[in-house]
Amino acid sequence: ENNRYRGKAAHIKGIKSMSNNAEVAFLERDAEHLIHPLHSKAVHATGKVWVGGKGAYLVDANGEKFIDGLSGLWNNTAGNGRSELVEAGSKQLAEMAYASGYSGSSNPRAIELGEKIANITYPNINQFFFTSGGGEATDSNIKMARYYWKLKGKPEKTKVISRILGYHGVTLAAMCATGISMYWPMFEPRIPGFIHIPGPYPYFYEAPDGAESQGIAAANELEKAILAEGADTVAMFIAEPVQGAGGVIVPQDDYFPRIREICDKYDVLLVSDEVITGFGRTGKMFGLEHWGVKPDMMQFAKAITSGYFPLGGIGVSDEIANTMNESGKPWMHAYTYSANPTGCAIACAMLDLIEKEDFPAQAAQKGAQLLANLKDALGDHPNVGEVRGLGMMCAVEFVKDRATKEVFDTADGIGAKVNAQTMERGMFSRVRGDAYYIAPPIVTNDATLDRIVEIMAESTKAVLG
User: Fold this and answer.
1) Of the candidates 413, 416, 449, 411, the residue with the CA atom closest to the CA atom of residue 431
2) Are the beta carbons of 127 and 316 closer than 8 angstroms?
3) Ordered alpha helix ranges (H), 239-317
4) Count of alpha carbons within 13 Å of 268, Cβ hemisphere only?
5) Collapsing DSSP states into helix, strand and coil, what is residue 56?
6) Beta strands in 265-378 (DSSP E)
7) Which residues are bridge partners to 59 per DSSP?
């Protein structure tokens, strides 16, 4: 029996070695020809090659299964393997894979998608322009805002105010709006006219003495910036309802209502970046619904197709749409793949799925459970400064000293070490510095959510004791 067992073990070890070699071989081929987003040859040398996926799990070239802890890049809310989305895309590909969406051309799926979004989004937003993703959507909103103010006889209103640690993409104009400075140096000089203010970040933001509240003080940073620049030069303020890539930063309840007041007072367009928060992720269909605030413009991508097809877009208020349409002047902005019929077909099927399975309610219930369990498991750890989240977006903020909020030295690489430990235990996600992100697909089951909590507790202990 012992000899037979040893023989079986050796056989399994041999299979494992062969599968490891398979992933190495893929990575060697990859290195010959591919440049990746956030490209780093050193990082990618130990990367993963994904070959399969089902629900909230990914499978690598070694045949090992991982929890998809960030839903791909926040986008795959329905998980992999949804036949409804595959069939919608296949059917449209067979009927008509592509047609131009330029003025003078349209297609039924794009028309249906516009109707569906109008039925679920902010009541003042009913007209949409489609892009291939979130970065294009940011650029589109910047151009739309400038165009609108020119039509209103205020051509000097061109500046964009955004927030430190806000993320709005990394195409050139979007990169200038993004407030994460590591994205800038390689490509500077940046475009003039982009201003960054402190974000609300409840854990770290320090309100001045005598402030009405932390949220009001953080919102008033916008008023200060508008006054410093001159209200007659500021076109728009762009903000994520919950800052995603910057750290899953959930604002104070009084923050966005005050932001809306300031934008109204100074005639500045409020743009809601719903690329991560849209379509149920936060427990509401769209993020600003949590605070009863309506934006003038919005942008979306990611979950609109659950990542099954690259698609994004912007929505504009009736006031902006009417001003544009009544001007008689064309809006000289375009993308080849705007209103792509295949992408729109998948998006329509995804919106049906979101409604049928009530993704906002799922995210609210599961997210509350996940956040509570993470707090129970990690909340007393001396190096866990904060466990925060809203809906199916959570983050764990690691700090050197919980009492003083002193952060670790960058060279310590605590976030990266925790991330490596979660990988060892079968979960794949991302970090910013020492903040670890947890945003699995909305369809993730309770057992997997419980395992996420276990992995985070085990990984934290492995790195920090």
Assistant:
1) 416
2) yes
3) 255-266
4) 30
5) coil
6) 269-273, 297-300, 312-317
7) 52, 65
